Amino acid sequence: MSARGGLLVVSAPSGAGKTTLCRRLLEALPHLAFSVSHTTRAPRAAERDGVDYHFVSREEFETRRRAGDFLEWAVVGGEQYGTSAAAVEAILASGRDALLDVDTQGAAAVRRVKPEAVLVFILPPGPEALRARLLARGSESEESLERRLRLAAAEVARAGEYDYQVINDDVDAAFDRLRAIVVATRCRTARLRDRLETIAAKFGSGTS
User: Fold this and answer.
1) CATH code, domain carrying 154
2) Staple 91 to which of 61, 98, 106, 163, CB 3.0 to 4.6 Å?
3) Domain annotation covers residue 44
4) DSSP state letters, 99-111
């Protein structure tokens, strides 16, 4: 591990399997920590405050936003979402990699302030598969379903702004691809520069 962690940003249309893949990634890879976002939306079934999101009022969110507490923030579906800059910095400073689960607006904002961040977009194999996955939830009205599909089309159109694409046509294969991306980014020269210099110095001094 390098002295300072790296920043991994993952985005996807709703229903593409991003949450499942990120949870598996966190379970499989040590030194990877999830940055819990703040949101003004109500918790869904089984979601826990402080674990899935920090659920806050609009007043609290606005207070934090005006104070500059957020690394990025966006309005999605009428609700506000934001990533704590202090929480991300604490993860990176500890030497762990920070995993951010944000939408395309948030990813673009992170890239502006953290150009070294690695951006990954999770794609469904097509709109039909995405529709089927959303319907399988059993919680979507026809109106909300169509709204999510329209939003998905706009998000997919921005997938080219990301460093990597992972097509989730098979969850196990998609997980393998996502894990490979994280492992590869940890081997970047910029991440290992201090260790490389130490090793090179030993060779120069003749130390074995």
Assistant:
1) 3.40.50.300
2) 98
3) no
4) EEE--HHHHHHHH
Condensed to tens digits (0 to 9), the pLDDT of residues 85-132 reads 999 999 999 999 999 999 999 999 999 999 999 999 999 988 888 888
Structural domain contains residue 84: no
Number of independent structural domains in the chain: 1
E strand intervals along the chain: 7-11, 32-34, 38-39, 54-55, 70-76, 79-84, 97-101, 118-123, 164-167
Q: How far is CA 204 from the centre of its chain?
A: 41
Domain of 122, in residue numbers: 7-35+96-205
Backbone angles phi, psi at 140, to 5 degrees: -105, 130
What is the pTM assigned to this prediction?
0.88
Token duo for residue 10: 């993952």
